Amino acid sequence: MRVLPTATTDMSDSAASLTRDELCRELEALWRERIPLTRALGVALRRFDDATLELAADLAPNVNIHGTGFAGSLYSISALCGWSMIHLQLGLRGLAGSIVLAEGRIRYLRPVTEEIVAVCLFDDHDAAFTELAHSGRARFPLTAKIASAGKVAVEFEGDFAVKSQA
Amino acid sequence: MRVLPTATTDMSDSAASLTRDELCRELEALWRERIPLTRALGVALRRFDDATLELAADLAPNVNIHGTGFAGSLYSISALCGWSMIHLQLGLRGLAGSIVLAEGRIRYLRPVTEEIVAVCLFDDHDAAFTELAHSGRARFPLTAKIASAGKVAVEFEGDFAVKSQA
What we know:
The structure is a homodimer. Chain A is an alpha+beta fold and about 170 residues long. The first copy, chain A, has a single domain, classed as Roll (Thiol Ester Dehydrase, Chain A). Chain A has 4 helices and 6 strands; from the N terminus they run ααββαββαββ. Chain A has helices at about 20-35, 35-40, 70-90, 125-135, and strands at about 45-50, 50-55, 95-110, 115-120, 135-150, 150-165. In chain A, strands 1-2-4-5-6-3 form a 6-stranded antiparallel beta sheet. In chain A, helix 1 (about 20-35) crosses helix 3. Chain A starts with 19 loop residues before the first helix and ends with a strand. Residues about 1-15 of chain A have low confidence and may be disordered. The interface of A and B includes residues 67, 103 and 104 of A. Strand 3 (about 95-110) of chain A pairs antiparallel with strand 3 of chain B, so a sheet runs across the interface.
């Protein structure tokens, strides 16, 4: 386990040795302080257990001209959900890493007409963690979904590139 | 050519019979009034001729924890650039339509470390306009790119679904 580092330019360093609740609070503070758009999105961490991360945001600040979820907001919240899942998974393992989204794909299947809730599941990524430990780099493909009126409305897939930090 | 409609729930109706400059000003007003996230992005219409649309936004409100362009901001500005290009092209033709992004794909090739400028080119879409005139619906695949330090940093592809409005 790494000890808490002093302030660096990459706050993902600060995840080590924290409990799950502490990790979640630290993550939300990180969004607010270092990713200004998250304040405009109004996004909050709704739920995290080891396998599931849910982010939520009111619809009002995120509407398009049709009064439904703006494509850019839906993507941003989905991508943030994937990025945050990896940030938390590294933190739970006492690891520090730089996480960058390399590629994103999103399908808008139906309009989002209610509170935006993005859900990301973390399945078996043992091979990626082994690769990260051996080479210092790994790719984590993740998906996130947003439902509306009980049906899947948005499907996001992202390829996240993680680099270990000493 | 359609005459200017009375106020409706879909402002894309209001494009008919306007000059290019009027279309651009109307579009920016539409963003500000009906897509709140565009205010947080700080995005502005930089340039439009019949074939090229450029949107620009300061980096500061759009940074990630690395101090470079946030993936969500880069996607949102790219997608808005594509959507706006179709909105303007319909307006130039005196057409009214509902424009919805059905699917988006984006590759982040290098960090964006300067003002974010998204560029969308409008090539030959005659077949799509013919389809729109005949069936009332058409798909417009569009790309947008963002450069940084003189190299392509972001490549966006979107499939926009357009539906004619009576």
